[in-house]
Amino acid sequence: MSAASPRPSPAFSPMRVYALVTRYMYLLRSSWPRLVELVYWPTVQMVTWGFLQLHVGQSANPLVFGAGAFIGAMLLWDVLFRSQLGFSMSFLEEMWARNMGNLLMSPLRPGEFLLALVVMSLVRLFVGLVPVTVLAMAFFGFNVYALGLGLAFFFTNLVLTGWAVGIVVSGVILRNGMGAEGLAWTVMFLMLPLGCVYYPVSVLPGWLQTIAWMLPPTYVFEGLRALVIDNVLRTDLMLQAFAINLGLLAASTAAFLWLVQEARKAGSLLQQGE
């Protein structure tokens, strides 16, 4: 009598995603420094830029800067940065534990792995930012939730951009090893000047404006200034940013899958050092 063949794993399993998310939640809960780190940097930035805005508001024409424009831009910049960092940190947890080879040799599919990282990105983002938004209201009277529908547009587009960057960064680290780990903390800062976080696109030279308009965050921060200063919700900018984000997500996912295959061929899944 021949041995029964193993039952094929389903094409998609929500339970596998749930199992990974549960693992990451236990990692997060078991280390208070991780929780403190989620709140620490947004708090430092909010206080720094908040007091800067108070100084500017007292010494210059408020219409030039807009009420709440600096604090709003800082909070939205942190949404962009922390959505990418939260994604990459959960990925790096597996690299640091040298567990990536085990995961990718299991029935876990790359799409399920990415979805689990997306969920953990949102968890880390909300843990870090919700307390900071409360402090912004208490210290400076700036209520980011008063942006209403605009906040939903801004948040969605920035998170999608963060995920797209995080997916590519994770693939590069997987293929090249921990020598590329620094990308998780540095690559997003390339968007700080080009995304026009604290100043309008018109400040840039003409040739650089063309590059800036290729980045979804540029549309978001231009939309923020239009809403805070002119009280106008630029849905046209939000739709353009969303369209670019869809293209970026598709390209980044394809790049990640290709890099996973290259890592398998090169044997770097089992050699995850520098």
Please specify the SSE layout and strand pairing.
Blueprint: H1 14-29, H2 32-59, H3 62-65, H4 69-96, H5 100-105, H6 110-140, H7 149-176, H8 183-186, H9 191-194, H10 206-212, H11 216-230, H12 235-266
Helix pairs in contact: 1-6, 2-4, 2-6, 4-6, 4-7, 4-11, 7-11, 7-12, 11-12
Task: Explain this structure.
This protein is mainly alpha-helical and 274 residues long. The protein has one domain (14-21, 31-266). It is 74% helix and 0% strand. It is built from 12 helices and no strands. It has helices at residues 14-29, 32-59, 62-65, 69-96, 100-105, 110-140, 149-176, 183-186, 191-194, 206-212, 216-230, 235-266. α2 (32-59) packs antiparallel against α4. It is globular. The N and C termini lie far apart (49 Å).
